[in-house]
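Extended Data, record ThiF family adenylyltransferase
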Amino acid sequence: MQVHIKKTLQPFIDGDNILFGNGNAGLTRKIANTTENVNLIKYLAGEMDRKSLHLTDDELNTKIEKFKELGLLSSNDYDPELRYANNYSYFEWVDKSSNIDPQSYQRKLADSYVVIFGIDKIGTTVAEQLVRAGVGRLKLVDSAVVKEANLANQSIYTEKDIGKKKVNVCKQYLLAINSKVQIKAVDCEINSSNEVEKYLDSDVDLIIDSMDKTNDNEWFDRISNKVNKPVIFGSYASTSSNVFVKIPGVTVDYMDFLGKEQIADDHLIDYHFPAAIIAPVTYMAAGLVSYNAIMLLTGLRVPTEAVQIDFDGWTIEKYDVRKK
């Protein structure tokens, strides 16, 4: 396996240092600006031959190992025609480990099994994004049919789907994107934590709660602890999109978090009305869920912050939800 400098990190000279990954403070790395390092970078980029390095094999191997430890090397061939070429480059970019094979993260996605409860405003877009990202196996759980009102803020569905079961429409849409993905559509209404558990196979890697029921957060919180599986809670509230990744043993329980941060349930007037929401907000909420799912499934990140983005003022609230 041939290794080279990560093109995505775009090294450049900055005074006494050579910077890699500039533009993202969390990804920036630096080494000393020496002739030896400059030449080694050019060699690893294929722009200088071995003889011009003036290093012994042992010296070269030691240098390469240090570059590897800094996460500066990759085996990515940057073939733009590959289905997941953009994924490989992205994984290479955000990977701070010594791993040199970004395709290994794609293989993890292909081997992943995700169950999505609620194929609605958030669940539809999450399902699509995960299939496009390369997740190999999905289970979709919902009992609803497509309604005209769904077309305003839910992806996948069109006018010709009105009256059809959401899980069946979604399954066919996803298979048109990737015919190799394994998808099971479950037409069932979930009304208890026992019913949630019923549809969780032992080999599931991730649970996504995008249902819109009064007690569903509590159900999934409890089941997550019982089966020791992570669950991602995605939600929206008018101008805000929210995400919370619950990882048993790593983060606090979702209900404990809500107990500290939620608004009191006091109403002066009747609050039963169509949700005040537009498609960009639900799509953003789905994006937050999908991004965290991909990071978690690949192992590139362990999400430990709950996030809320409010579009009316462009504020971002972050909460450390690690267990103390």
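Summary. The mean pLDDT is 93.
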